[in-house]
């Protein structure tokens, strides 16, 4: 009768890695999201050379799309497979390096230098490691964060934003009693209180 059944549910990092291994990635889309196209001006406000952050990036094609416009893109994703698929599917050469501040983390960077993807948990990042961003594209990210981690996620995102930055957030409106995902229901009232 309420979203109570979802509140305590947790999707572990291991489960996400398995989804990638099994090819169970129905969330991945081959086309640039129509809402990004629609609200692109809100994200960029006519500026060029912005730094755009993709939390929980998967292999989102929008990263390539924005990089091709001359922006620099930073993403974070726990699945190394996802990041490697991103570079190979776009035929982008890249190099790998460790991230000294985060044990076990790697940074995969396009040779052209304008796409840097961190392979680690988003909770390992801070503005001292990745800097601050002019824009955020949050699609399949807040809605994939475990409900118990939402406040932590949002607080972190705020620390990664420049004062003048824009945050585009995509959520899905549905009856959480009738549908299981994607993967969590975040009501609008909660978005307002979180941010
Ligand atoms: N934003 C992408 C992917 C959405 S699915 C898109 O639009 O296609 C959510 C992604 O978050 C998955 O690829 C999963 O592996 C990744 N993920 C889950 N928890 C994470 C965490 N704590 N840190 C970084 N990535 C995470």
UniProtKB/TrEMBL annotation:
UniProt-annotated binding residues for S-adenosyl-L-methionine: 16-27, 56, 77, 121-122, 139
Annotated compartments: Cytoplasm
GO cellular component, one term: cytoplasm
Catalytic activity: S-adenosyl-L-methionine + a thiopurine = S-adenosyl-L-homocysteine + a thiopurine S-methylether
GO biological process terms held by the UniProt record: methylation
EC identifiers of the protein: 2.1.1.67
Keyword Endoplasmic reticulum in record: no
Enzyme class name: transferase
Gene3D superfamilies assigned to the protein according to its UniProt record, in alphabetical order: Vaccinia Virus protein VP39
InterPro entries: SAM-dependent_MTases_sf (IPR029063), Thiopurine_S-MeTrfase (IPR025835), TPMT (IPR008854)
Keywords: Cytoplasm, Methyltransferase, S-adenosyl-L-methionine, Transferase
Record's keyword annotation contains Translocase: no
Chief location category: cytoplasm
GO molecular function, one term: thiopurine S-methyltransferase activity
PANTHER family associated with the record: THIOPURINE S-METHYLTRANSFERASE (PTHR10259)
Family statement: Belongs to the class I-like SAM-binding methyltransferase superfamily. TPMT family.
Protein name as annotated: thiopurine S-methyltransferase
Lineage: Eukaryota, Metazoa, Chordata, Craniata, Vertebrata
Gene that encodes the chain: Tpmt
């Amino acid at each position: 009768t309420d979203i109570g059944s979802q509140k305590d549910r947790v999707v572990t990092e291991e489960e996400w890695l398995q989804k990638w291994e099994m090819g169970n990635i129905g969330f991945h889309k081959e086309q640039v999201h129509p809402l990004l196209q629609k609200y692109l001006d809100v994200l960029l406000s006519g500026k060029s050379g912005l730094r755009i952050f993709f939390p929980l990036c998967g292999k989102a094609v929008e990263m390539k799309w924005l990089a091709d416009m001359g922006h620099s893109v930073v993403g974070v994703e726990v699945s190394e497979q996802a990041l490697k698929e991103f570079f190979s599917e776009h035929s982008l050469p890249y190099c790998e390096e460790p991230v000294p501040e985060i044990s076990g983390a790697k940074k995969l960077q396009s040779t052209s230098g304008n796409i840097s993807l961190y392979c680690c948990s988003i909770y390992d990042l801070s503005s001292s490691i990745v800097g601050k961003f002019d824009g955020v594209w949050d699609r399949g990210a807040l809605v994939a964060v475990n409900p118990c981690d939402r406040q932590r996620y949002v607080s972190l995102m705020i620390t990664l934003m420049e004062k003048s930055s824009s945050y585009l957030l995509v959520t899905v409106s549905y009856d959480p009693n009738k549908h299981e995902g994607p993967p969590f229901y975040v009501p609008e009232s909660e978005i307002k209180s979180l941010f």
